[in-house]
Amino acid sequence: MTGTERISHMKEQMRPSEELVARVREQVSVEPSVSPAKLAWIPRAAVVCAAALIVAGAWALPRINPGLNSGIDINGPSSGGAVTSGFSETGADIEENNASQIQNGIYIPQIVLEEPEPGVAVDMVGLIVYRGSIYTWTNNLTLSNAQEQALRGEYLGRTKGNIDEWSKQDDYSKELASSIGKEDVYTVCGYDRDFRIMTSDGQGNVGIYERLNDIWLESGNDLFGRMKLKGNLEAFCWQPLSEWDSGVENRYDPGLSEEVVNAFIDGLYDAVYMEKADWRQLEPKPCYLTLKDGTEIRLMLLKGGYVKYLGMGGNGVFRMEESVFNEVYEDALI
Question: Which of 71, 72, 89 has its CA nearest to residue 80?
Fold first, then answer.
């Protein structure tokens, strides 16, 4: 079986049954767009990767924004007339979708707890509650002592480890409530604490947590700008999908010129945020952008100019200018 045939076979195996799709849609059905997002519990029997949690038919991504799992393809920010908050130009709610599309982007609502089904054992994504907001796990880093010390900011406290699948909404009101056990939490030097915090064991093992809810996204700058990508790239690597899917940690240098890399980053900042329900079927190619401070941005490049940030669940993607995108996707990556 060729590499292409293996990927096609894998995609076919990953496609959920109609019964599963119906069940998931029922679990994450939401009120109109002004309602907060619900934290989707994941049946333990469906978990394949404990770190990032895969539901059958879904990739390794935290399932925390049901509005972005609704299957609705929103074609970017509105370019029409005046639009009021949370409503389309006609005043109609965006039904079955908890991410509002208005003139200045798409709103990803605040997370709230969704009760699990009685009798169903579940797992959940790693999260920390800080200053009333929920930060979800996006990456683990292994750093040198010098890198860790440079990245570690103000000590915020120790997580309580009090959240599990049986937790109630009140449990989320406690400062530094978490689902990750007890870890020391810090701000991240050089980054806004309203966006990113970290855990650290003092031995170079760092967990990155980001607030990717209760935010507006219009362009790549709204996300990657907060990650300080531009002007701080250390390495651009990629990995065959088969290795990524198997959990292999190999990284490969695609041999991109500085000019191509800079154009790609500029294009990523300018990319339009939208929903793309079929993104998993668009010949994905995993990429890793390592910054000078040791942090890392994990992306999935998708045929047609789409980029998926792997720290964020759901169907949200960024649409780049295709000629710039293809200099990396078509010309440099196998």
Answer: 89
Residue 285 lies in a domain: yes
> Distance (Å, rounded) from C-alpha 13 to C-alpha 165?
28
Determine the structural domain holding residue 57 and report its residue range: 3-87+96-329
What phi, psi does 11 have (nearest 5°)?
-60, -40
Q: What is the pTM assigned to this prediction?
A: 0.71
DSSP of 153-190, one letter per residue? EEEEEE------TT--GGGGGSTT-BSS-S-EEEEETT
Rounded Cα distance, 119 and 100, in Å: 33
Residue 153 within any structural domain of the chain: yes
What residues form DSSP beta bridges with 130? 133
Q: Positive or negative, the Cα torsion across 236, 239, 241, 245?
A: negative
Higher-confidence position of 120 and 189: 189
pLDDT in tens, 233-289: 999 999 999 999 999 989 999 999 999 999 999 999 999 999 998 888 999 999 999
The encoded tokens of residue 248 equal 């292999």
What is the domain count for the chain?
1
Q: What are phi and psi of 225, to 5 degrees?
A: -65, -35
Residue 104 near residue 77 (C-beta atoms within 8 A): yes
Beta bridge partners of 238: 252, 287
Distance CA 177, CA 157 (A): 11
Can you tell me which residue has the tokens 């970017």? 76
